[in-house]
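Hi all, long-time lurker, first post. I run a small reading group and we've been trying to get comfortable going from sequence to structure in the token notation. Rather than ask abstract questions, I figured I'd post a concrete chain and ask someone more experienced to write out its structure so we can walk through it together at our next meeting. Sequence below, copied exactly:
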Amino acid sequence: QVHLVESGGGLVQPGGSLRLSCAASGSIISINSMGWFRQAPGKEREFVAAVDWAGGSTYYADSVKGRFTISRDNAKNTLYLQMNSLKPEDTAVHYCAASRFYGLQISTRHYDFWGQGTQVTVSS
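-- Answer (accepted) --
Happy to help. Here is the structure in token form:
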């Protein structure tokens, strides 16, 4: 089992920045990739970004490309999401997830473990 705990969400004005963190514990050795997803009220959970845990290669949804950066610190077993130039449409509960699949995963079905989520609200 892998336990994931997100932090760093909050209220920010349009154009502002936030940095989300996700601390992983448990059977870390089973993790091969990690990702961030988000879910707005009344909408399905959507892919935001993914990172290969060993090699560090990344992949982003078009809606966040150029504004968000996913990274990981293997020594600290922590995943990050730096979010810049935030827009009101970024408002959602953001979740981190861990996958036992190799390669960059963009489907929720390929993730085995999920955090509890952290709220990001972008509003003036």
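A couple of things your group might point at:
The chain has no helices and eleven strands.
The chain has a mean pLDDT of 95.
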